[in-house]
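Weekly puzzle thread! Below is a chain. First person to post its structure in token form gets bragging rights.
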Amino acid sequence: MLSHIYMKTLKQRIEDLKASGLGATTARRCPARPSPALWYDLFQAGFNEVDLQRVIRYLQREIREGRRNVGALKLSNLLQIDRFEEDLNISRVQLYAPKPIKPVPPPSAPPPTPEEKEAARQRALQLLAKLRAEHGL
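Winning reply:
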């Protein structure tokens, strides 16, 4: 049997989780209350409230993407140590392709001088005049 002192601490941790909104997140999906032994097992295995929040965020994201069933957020499922540990480990891994490295653009040529701009304009005018003369425009 769990010691009275530890149960009080455990009860306080569970109440703190409910007050933080985690209870509301999962209560809509699981109206039945899980046994305190499930919470005890979770905390005894070394997991904490931060881990629980991380797994819940991960599961919510997976549910939105259609990869997981809403039942994954039921406390009776969420608090099973083997499932919890697996979901926590997966949530810690980035499953994204590495961002492509942008190629470094080649060094650009210095801007043209006013003389080069005028020479290019004159060439363009000559080509335009030649085109008009060839096509009778």
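Puzzle host: Confirmed. Bonus trivia for everyone else. Residues 1-6, 26-31 have pLDDT under 50 and may be disordered.
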